[in-house]
User: Fold Complex 1 LYR protein domain-containing protein from Urochloa decumbens.
Amino acid sequence: MSNAGLRAYREVLRLVRRLPAETRPYYAKYARENFVNYRDLSADDDLAALLGRAYTHSSWVLSKYSIDAESEKAAVRLKDLGAGQ
Assistant:
């Protein structure tokens, strides 16, 4: 996995910590499985698309639990990673 992928994974795990305690194990496992499934991705365009999806999905999960993604620093960094690819 590229450095951008590892940084994105780290930011997603930071966002998972903002979720209610009873939901954290599920979303942490879900994130790990998805990042492991795509760890061999080589094309930069595909990586950028996946990082964008990671941000979109993370924002959706945060809003589901009434957490404002725009105010979360980890979400902003995740968004920047996707845009920077």
Notes: DSSP finds four helices and no strands in the chain. The mean pLDDT is 86. Residues 44-64 form the longest helix (21 residues).
